[in-house]
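Good day; I would like, with your permission, to put a structural problem before you. The record follows directly beneath this note:
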Amino acid sequence: MANVEGRRYREAKEAVPSDEGPLSLMQAAELVRETATANFDESVDMDLRLGVDPRHADQMVRGTVALPHGTGRDVTVLVLANEGKQEEAEAAGADYAGLDEYIERIQEENWLDYDVVIATPDVMGQVGQLGRILGPRGLMPNPKSGTVTMDVAETVEEMKAGKIEFRVDRTGNLHTPIGRASFSAQELYENAKAFLKEVVRLRPAASKGLYIRSVTMSATMGPPVPVDRRSVLSEAR
Protein backbone atom coordinates (compact mmCIF):
# COMPACT_ATOMS: atom_id res chain seq x y z
CA MET A 1 0.00 0.00 0.00
CA ALA A 2 2.84 2.38 0.85
CA ASN A 3 4.41 1.82 -2.58
CA VAL A 4 1.10 2.59 -4.32
CA GLU A 5 0.72 5.81 -2.37
CA GLY A 6 4.33 6.71 -3.20
CA ARG A 7 3.68 6.16 -6.89
CA ARG A 8 0.53 8.26 -6.78
CA TYR A 9 2.36 11.06 -5.05
CA ARG A 10 5.20 10.98 -7.57
CA GLU A 11 2.77 11.07 -10.47
CA ALA A 12 0.88 13.96 -8.87
CA LYS A 13 4.14 15.81 -8.24
CA GLU A 14 5.12 15.41 -11.90
CA ALA A 15 1.87 17.17 -12.84
CA VAL A 16 3.03 20.32 -11.03
CA PRO A 17 4.96 22.39 -13.62
CA SER A 18 8.48 23.17 -12.50
CA ASP A 19 9.57 25.26 -15.47
CA GLU A 20 6.63 27.67 -15.63
CA GLY A 21 7.04 29.13 -12.15
CA PRO A 22 4.26 29.72 -9.63
CA LEU A 23 0.66 29.57 -10.83
CA SER A 24 -2.22 31.97 -10.47
CA LEU A 25 -4.66 31.34 -7.64
CA MET A 26 -7.25 29.82 -9.99
CA GLN A 27 -4.68 27.65 -11.77
CA ALA A 28 -3.45 26.38 -8.40
CA ALA A 29 -7.01 25.52 -7.31
CA GLU A 30 -7.58 23.57 -10.54
CA LEU A 31 -4.28 21.68 -10.25
CA VAL A 32 -4.79 20.80 -6.57
CA ARG A 33 -8.09 19.15 -7.47
CA GLU A 34 -6.41 17.20 -10.29
CA THR A 35 -3.63 15.94 -8.02
CA ALA A 36 -5.97 14.85 -5.20
CA THR A 37 -6.13 11.11 -5.97
CA ALA A 38 -6.76 9.56 -2.55
CA ASN A 39 -9.87 7.44 -2.02
CA PHE A 40 -11.31 9.94 0.45
CA ASP A 41 -12.33 13.59 0.23
CA GLU A 42 -8.99 15.26 0.92
CA SER A 43 -8.68 18.57 2.75
CA VAL A 44 -7.27 21.43 0.70
CA ASP A 45 -4.91 23.67 2.65
CA MET A 46 -2.99 26.87 2.11
CA ASP A 47 0.48 27.51 3.53
CA LEU A 48 1.94 31.02 3.69
CA ARG A 49 5.40 32.09 4.74
CA LEU A 50 5.15 35.60 6.14
CA GLY A 51 7.79 38.25 6.69
CA VAL A 52 7.01 38.62 10.39
CA ASP A 53 8.70 37.66 13.65
CA PRO A 54 5.91 36.35 15.92
CA ARG A 55 8.25 36.47 18.91
CA HIS A 56 7.35 40.17 18.97
CA ALA A 57 3.75 40.85 19.99
CA ASP A 58 3.43 43.66 17.44
CA GLN A 59 4.16 41.23 14.60
CA MET A 60 1.61 38.56 15.50
CA VAL A 61 -0.86 37.71 12.72
CA ARG A 62 -4.06 36.19 14.08
CA GLY A 63 -7.66 36.45 13.00
CA THR A 64 -10.81 34.81 11.70
CA VAL A 65 -12.54 34.75 8.34
CA ALA A 66 -15.86 33.39 7.13
CA LEU A 67 -15.13 31.26 4.07
CA PRO A 68 -17.86 31.77 1.43
CA HIS A 69 -18.24 28.00 0.92
CA GLY A 70 -17.26 26.76 4.37
CA THR A 71 -14.55 24.18 5.02
CA GLY A 72 -16.50 21.13 3.94
CA ARG A 73 -16.27 19.48 7.33
CA ASP A 74 -18.35 19.40 10.49
CA VAL A 75 -17.02 21.75 13.16
CA THR A 76 -17.38 20.63 16.77
CA VAL A 77 -17.97 23.59 19.09
CA LEU A 78 -17.53 23.76 22.87
CA VAL A 79 -19.03 26.74 24.70
CA LEU A 80 -17.88 27.59 28.22
CA ALA A 81 -20.44 29.86 29.86
CA ASN A 82 -22.88 30.21 32.71
CA GLU A 83 -26.31 28.59 32.59
CA GLY A 84 -28.26 31.23 30.67
CA LYS A 85 -25.73 31.35 27.83
CA GLN A 86 -25.44 27.56 27.82
CA GLU A 87 -29.06 27.29 26.70
CA GLU A 88 -28.46 29.93 24.04
CA ALA A 89 -25.42 28.04 22.78
CA GLU A 90 -27.23 24.71 22.59
CA ALA A 91 -30.13 26.30 20.71
CA ALA A 92 -27.64 27.69 18.17
CA GLY A 93 -26.11 24.25 17.58
CA ALA A 94 -23.18 24.01 19.99
CA ASP A 95 -22.06 20.41 20.50
CA TYR A 96 -21.10 21.00 24.13
CA ALA A 97 -22.13 23.79 26.48
CA GLY A 98 -21.30 24.04 30.16
CA LEU A 99 -18.62 25.26 32.50
CA ASP A 100 -17.28 23.52 35.60
CA GLU A 101 -17.78 19.98 34.32
CA TYR A 102 -15.93 20.70 31.07
CA ILE A 103 -13.11 22.64 32.72
CA GLU A 104 -12.63 19.68 35.04
CA ARG A 105 -12.75 17.18 32.17
CA ILE A 106 -10.15 19.11 30.19
CA GLN A 107 -7.84 19.36 33.19
CA GLU A 108 -8.19 15.78 34.38
CA GLU A 109 -8.62 13.90 31.10
CA ASN A 110 -6.87 16.25 28.66
CA TRP A 111 -10.15 16.16 26.74
CA LEU A 112 -9.82 17.70 23.26
CA ASP A 113 -12.75 16.35 21.19
CA TYR A 114 -13.73 19.72 19.67
CA ASP A 115 -12.47 22.13 17.04
CA VAL A 116 -13.45 25.51 18.53
CA VAL A 117 -13.84 26.79 22.09
CA ILE A 118 -16.02 29.83 22.74
CA ALA A 119 -16.25 31.49 26.17
CA THR A 120 -18.12 34.44 27.61
CA PRO A 121 -16.03 37.23 29.20
CA ASP A 122 -17.46 36.67 32.67
CA VAL A 123 -16.01 33.14 32.93
CA MET A 124 -12.54 33.83 31.54
CA GLY A 125 -11.13 33.90 35.07
CA GLN A 126 -11.96 30.20 35.30
CA VAL A 127 -11.18 29.37 31.66
CA GLY A 128 -7.76 31.00 31.97
CA GLN A 129 -6.46 28.01 33.93
CA LEU A 130 -6.85 25.93 30.76
CA GLY A 131 -4.25 27.98 28.90
CA ARG A 132 -1.45 25.45 29.23
CA ILE A 133 -3.65 22.78 27.59
CA LEU A 134 -5.65 24.78 25.04
CA GLY A 135 -3.04 27.44 24.21
CA PRO A 136 -0.44 25.23 22.45
CA ARG A 137 -3.22 23.69 20.35
CA GLY A 138 -4.65 27.03 19.24
CA LEU A 139 -7.92 26.39 21.07
CA MET A 140 -7.75 29.01 23.82
CA PRO A 141 -10.63 31.52 23.55
CA ASN A 142 -9.37 34.96 22.62
CA PRO A 143 -11.13 38.31 22.04
CA LYS A 144 -9.00 38.96 18.94
CA SER A 145 -10.34 35.85 17.27
CA GLY A 146 -13.92 36.57 18.34
CA THR A 147 -14.14 33.51 20.58
CA VAL A 148 -14.52 35.50 23.81
CA THR A 149 -17.94 37.07 23.40
CA MET A 150 -21.40 37.51 24.86
CA ASP A 151 -22.88 36.96 21.37
CA VAL A 152 -22.70 33.21 21.85
CA ALA A 153 -25.46 32.15 19.45
CA GLU A 154 -24.16 34.22 16.55
CA THR A 155 -20.60 33.02 17.08
CA VAL A 156 -21.63 29.36 17.24
CA GLU A 157 -23.60 29.73 14.01
CA GLU A 158 -20.65 31.42 12.28
CA MET A 159 -18.22 28.69 13.34
CA LYS A 160 -20.61 25.97 12.23
CA ALA A 161 -21.06 27.70 8.87
CA GLY A 162 -17.33 27.72 8.13
CA LYS A 163 -15.73 30.64 9.91
CA ILE A 164 -12.12 29.68 10.56
CA GLU A 165 -9.49 30.94 12.95
CA PHE A 166 -5.86 31.23 11.89
CA ARG A 167 -2.64 32.12 13.67
CA VAL A 168 0.94 32.43 12.50
CA ASP A 169 3.30 29.92 14.12
CA ARG A 170 6.61 30.70 15.83
CA THR A 171 8.52 30.47 12.54
CA GLY A 172 6.30 32.90 10.63
CA ASN A 173 4.28 30.27 8.78
CA LEU A 174 0.51 30.24 8.42
CA HIS A 175 -1.39 27.02 7.67
CA THR A 176 -5.16 26.74 7.23
CA PRO A 177 -7.77 24.55 5.49
CA ILE A 178 -9.76 26.27 2.74
CA GLY A 179 -12.02 23.44 1.61
CA ARG A 180 -12.13 19.93 0.21
CA ALA A 181 -10.99 18.27 -3.00
CA SER A 182 -14.69 17.72 -3.83
CA PHE A 183 -15.17 21.50 -4.04
CA SER A 184 -15.12 23.07 -7.49
CA ALA A 185 -12.04 25.05 -8.48
CA GLN A 186 -14.18 28.20 -8.32
CA GLU A 187 -15.23 27.44 -4.72
CA LEU A 188 -11.62 26.80 -3.66
CA TYR A 189 -10.55 29.99 -5.42
CA GLU A 190 -13.21 32.08 -3.66
CA ASN A 191 -12.38 30.58 -0.25
CA ALA A 192 -8.65 31.14 -0.81
CA LYS A 193 -9.27 34.71 -1.92
CA ALA A 194 -11.33 35.49 1.20
CA PHE A 195 -8.60 34.04 3.45
CA LEU A 196 -5.76 35.86 1.70
CA LYS A 197 -7.63 39.15 1.72
CA GLU A 198 -7.96 38.96 5.50
CA VAL A 199 -4.30 38.00 5.96
CA VAL A 200 -3.22 41.02 3.91
CA ARG A 201 -5.60 43.28 5.86
CA LEU A 202 -4.00 42.11 9.11
CA ARG A 203 -0.45 42.99 8.09
CA PRO A 204 1.26 44.33 11.25
CA ALA A 205 2.57 47.88 11.01
CA ALA A 206 5.84 46.59 12.48
CA SER A 207 6.35 44.16 9.59
CA LYS A 208 9.00 45.54 7.24
CA GLY A 209 9.97 44.44 3.76
CA LEU A 210 8.25 41.56 1.97
CA TYR A 211 5.13 40.53 3.90
CA ILE A 212 3.93 37.50 1.93
CA ARG A 213 7.06 35.61 0.94
CA SER A 214 5.60 32.39 -0.46
CA VAL A 215 2.24 30.69 -0.92
CA THR A 216 1.41 27.06 -1.65
CA MET A 217 -1.84 25.13 -1.94
CA SER A 218 -2.12 21.37 -1.49
CA ALA A 219 -4.46 18.47 -0.87
CA THR A 220 -3.89 16.16 2.11
CA MET A 221 -2.06 13.49 0.09
CA GLY A 222 -0.97 15.69 -2.80
CA PRO A 223 2.15 17.72 -3.55
CA PRO A 224 2.40 21.45 -2.76
CA VAL A 225 1.41 23.69 -5.65
CA PRO A 226 3.24 27.05 -5.64
CA VAL A 227 1.09 30.15 -6.09
CA ASP A 228 2.43 33.35 -7.62
CA ARG A 229 2.68 35.87 -4.75
CA ARG A 230 1.93 38.71 -7.18
CA SER A 231 -1.32 36.95 -8.07
CA VAL A 232 -2.08 36.66 -4.35
CA LEU A 233 -1.52 40.35 -3.72
CA SER A 234 -3.66 41.25 -6.73
CA GLU A 235 -6.52 39.00 -5.63
CA ALA A 236 -6.33 40.23 -2.03
CA ARG A 237 -7.07 43.85 -2.89
